[in-house]
Design a protein that fits this description.
Number of helices: 9
Shape: globular
Strand content: 15-25%
Radius of gyration: 17 Å
CATH superfamily: Vaccinia Virus protein VP39
CATH architecture: 3-Layer(aba) Sandwich
Distance between the termini: 33 Å
Number of domains: 1
Helix content: 25-40%
Length: 226
């Protein structure tokens, strides 16, 4: 794991890195001439990843992206490839604009308090904002029983966020022409700090994710094409 992985992914890096590795297979190495939108940017790591591939990125959140987001992009010298906007995922002010829309752990917040209708609205807005043939790159938390119990018992937002069943999320993506996806992760989410998550994530990636099977995975990622 290197510094760039940490900057791009931020949390539970080894397991969420599976999403980035999956996306790589569906994108050219050089994205020059493309326009991208990151939704729910947080620290701006996914915008950094796309900008380093020479895409021009709109880095957005439902409130103004924090100063450290812009500082990250300055540090990696991609500021000329990034602009910043305040955008509500359920009301995206673009139509047919982007080659790529990217998000990580966003839909679970959009659908908090069991508002699956808001998730559907956000996906429809994303679909509208993409060019024909454009791609949504997504990574979201799944809701296997053991993780559901510990989230609701020990995580402050665990009862509010709208975590997904695999097939439920696929159904929500049905307006897209084609969706390819994968799942991963079992132990990594139980780490109390990033050092512990790195150790547990190593076990996941080496063998445990394959052993337990997708029904116990807590992470789903994919590419949905308009």
């Amino acid at each position: 794991m290197n510094r760039l992985d940490e900057e791009v992914i931020g949390w539970d890096v080894l397991n969420w890195k599976c999403a980035v590795e999956f996306w790589q297979a569906y994108l050219p190495a050089d994205l020059s001439g493309t326009r991208s939108l990151e939704i729910g940017c947080g620290g701006g790591g996914l915008s950094l990843w796309l900008a380093l591939k020479n895409s021009y990125v709109v880095c957005s959140d439902y409130r103004e992206p924090p100063p450290h987001t812009q500082a990250l992009h300055r540090d990696w010298r991609v500021s000329d490839h990034v602009c910043y906007q305040t955008i509500d995922a359920t009301n995206i002010p673009y139509e047919g604009e982007f080659d790529i829309v990217i998000l990580k752990s966003v839909l679970c917040s959009v659908g908090r308090l069991n508002r699956l209708d808001r998730v559907q609205q956000a996906l429809e807005e994303i679909h509208k904002s993409l060019k024909p043939g454009g791609k949504l790159l997504f990574a979201e938390n799944l809701d296997p029983p053991i993780h559901r119990f510990f989230r609701r018992s020990f995580v402050p937002w665990g009862k509010d966020c709208r975590y997904f069943k695999r097939d439920e999320l696929l159904t929500s993506l049905s307006m897209f022409r084609k969706t390819e996806f994968g799942t991963a992760g079992f132990l990594g989410a139980f780490g109390r700090n990033e050092r512990q998550r790195r150790i547990l994530g190593t076990v996941d990636r080496l063998f445990l994710s394959r052993m337990v099977g997708w029904k116990l995975h807590y992470l789903m990622f994919g590419v949905a094409q308009k």
